[in-house]
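Feature request, filed as a ticket because there's no other form

It would be nice if the structure record came with a short human-readable summary line next to the tokens. Right now we just get the raw output. Example of a typical job, pasted below so the devs can see what we mean:
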Amino acid sequence: MLTTNALHDFAHSTPWEYCLQKIAEKIGPHSFETWFRTSDLLIQNETAQVQVPNQFFADFIEEHFSDLVKETLHDIGIEFSRLLFVPTQKDWKIIEPITEEITEARTRIIPVAVEKRGQFHPNYTYNSFIVGDGNRMAHAASLAVAEAPGKTSFNPLVIYGGTGLGKTHLLQAIGHFAQTEGTADHVLYMTSEEFTNQYIDYVVHKKDSTSFYKKFKSVDLLLIDDIQFFSGKVGTQKEFYRIFNRLLMENKQIVLSSDRPPEKIPDMMDHIINRFLGGLTTDIQPPNLETRMAILRKKAEIDGLLLPEEVVQFIAGHITSNVRELEGALIKLIASSSFTGRDITLDVAQELCGDFLSRRAERISVKLILEKTAEIFDISPNQLSAHTRKRDVTLPRSVAMYLCKKWTKQSLRSIGLEFGGRDYSTVLHAHKKIETEIETNEDLHSKVQMLDEMIAALQ
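Raw output as currently delivered:
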């Protein structure tokens, strides 16, 4: 129930929006964007329900911000006897900051412990990372460990996903945050190749593996990128496990990235995999349209460029696989604008990116997707077009239709014709079916993800 005195304050916003303004001022933009951007409030039977995307969010907010929410609700005049944090199925969309005050708060962050910034790219920060449905969990978990390295249950934190989706950006953002905010004294970021090469240098050339081990003695936060490259390197794995074990025992934070789930990395020692699975493993999915558009706007803003909305929609609508491709298209537009002096219009974007998009469409065809899907499900491509209702064929066929709709620009009718003359409604049904099943069927999710990665690699 809302008190009469508070009604005037909400003339131009809902009670929850007003409450969020107050929360943002107290916790800062990083935590606000992660934990409260996708939230809502429902008051029912003297119970205040804060609605969030999933149970992970509900548990975390209740543990860390429950008192703050309760206090803020009371301060603005909302009366209730019970406060709950409830996961709710909603269409949580990317939205702009609610007020100018939140945007302005970004400029009030004061670095307190800046040191050794050279190992981090200046653009790979939380401020430049766009949060969407496909990376929300990874972003939230990464920020949690950045704010309190070694003090959460997310240790180790493993972030996995396909090429160009933002894994390195998040690892670098963790390092940036930990150093500038002073949450860790000694932060070390390495790629797996750097780790391996340095280990070999110490062992082979310097004959001194002990010094390599001691190199990590004072590390409070260790960030290692692309751990899949440890695959098959027994000596490197043993040394990594020794370092990994000691840091965990001393409650030091470890964050790792991989292009696949840890248990799917071939030729990796079982006890290392078991250690990985003892923390939190979270994935990053390809960005949806709204996220891709937000990424383009942010990248353009960083480069001091205002992109027309129709250009943003054109690029985001045609480049769907990863962030790196979006950046490539944007760089091409910026370079052309700089050299020619032309404004970036839709016509210019179509002219500059048209050849690239045409070549991409040629490489990814319905035929190619049929072949790759048949290969993964161990059947022949011809079976996918055959008129049979056997489960071992209908499921792969539905997967292939799902991928054709996702990766090609063919109409539903055209796709259906490639599958033995089926109509567009069959393709649409198959797409919806697979979209639903991959949420609960782990084996199917793994196969579809593998196919996505194979197709993305051919672009």
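Something like this underneath would help us a lot:
The chain has four domains: 4-90, 117-284, 289-361, 366-457.
Residues 55-75 form the longest helix (21 residues).
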